[in-house]
Amino acid sequence: MAWEQIRRGLAKYHLGVALRLLGVIAAAGIIALVYTLLRRRYLWLPQFSPTDVLAVLAIAFAIVQFMDAKRQEREITAIEGSVSTRFVGLFPKNLRHIREVISQADRYVYVMVDFIGYGQYSAPDEHQKYLAALQTAIRNNLDVKVICYTAILGEEERKQQFPDPPAQFEGIRNKKIFEAFCATNKISPCPATNAVLREALERRDALVRPVSNTKYLDEAAAFFVWLEDDEDAVFTFKNLGNRELGLSFRTQDANLIRQFKEIFNETWAMASSDHVAPAPSGLGDQTESGSSALANRVSPKTA
């Protein structure tokens, strides 16, 4: 439906360009005729050559086109924003949309993710805004439910994200992000190994105010999802073996949101209330690797 709107909009735009061109030509002809009559009466008026007339005509048309192009750009942007399901970027750029979804909720917020402190390493500033939106929803007595990983699974995921071999040390591999994390969280000196970095992330996550209604998965989720009020959602697919990707989409498609809600409720029913941790969990950031075991149990359907 939205693409049909875009097609019609483009056809309307092209027709509008043609009509405006004819209008400018007609206006120029009328102005030229009036000016000719005035010059016959007032001989002191300057005479314009055809080249001068064409230049004025071109400038006038360019001005009209510029104004029309800005208007059309606004219309196309509005149509694009109304597309029921659209790509909204890679992790961590999706955090802005996730925060928007949470912030507009009036009844409930349902989250299925790997760690409660999603994004604290890769995008600490956006992470804080994301947490603030969740905490606001809790203070407003919304039905906030969060499903994340158990301590054991979280530790496994964290080790995949930050492995021990010295050659894969974050301070070398992703120096800019690594140093920004240390600076934002006032960690000095910065961790010297990934093992120490994992411990730092665990300590930071322990400072996050616990979500009041949380359950835990002991197998990796096929996707992450943030739902609000049966109206809006962001869902993210992780990519095995690629730290850079986390394909995210935003949807207002009622059928798709209903499928996600059913999956969430089914997963909530089977999830554990016990974090079960022989060692502290590595709650804190999106891991950009992991298995998709849950995909064998459920698969989101598109409308």
Structure description:
This protein is an alpha/beta fold and 303 residues long. The chain folds into two domains: 81 residues, no CATH class; 160 residues, Endonuclease, Chain A (2-Layer Sandwich), CATH 3.30.870.10. 50% of the residues lie in helices and 13% in strands. The chain has a seven-stranded mixed sheet with strand order 1-7-6-5-2-3-4, sandwiched between helices. Helix 1 runs antiparallel to helix 2 and helix 3 packs parallel to helix 4. The longest helix is centred in the N-terminal third of the chain and has 40 residues. The C terminus is likely disordered.
Number of domains: 2
Elements, N to C (H/E): HHEHEHEHHHHEEEEH
What is the CATH third-level topology name of the largest domain?
Endonuclease, Chain A
Low-confidence runs of at least 5 consecutive residues? 277-303
Task: Compute the number of strand runs.
Answer: 7
CATH class group of the largest domain? Alpha Beta
* Beta fraction: 5-15%
> What best-fitting shape do the alpha-carbon axes yield?
elongated
Mean pLDDT: 77
Sheet having the most strands: 7 strands, mixed
Strand order of the largest sheet: 1-7-6-5-2-3-4
Structural class: alpha/beta
Residue share in helix: 40-55%
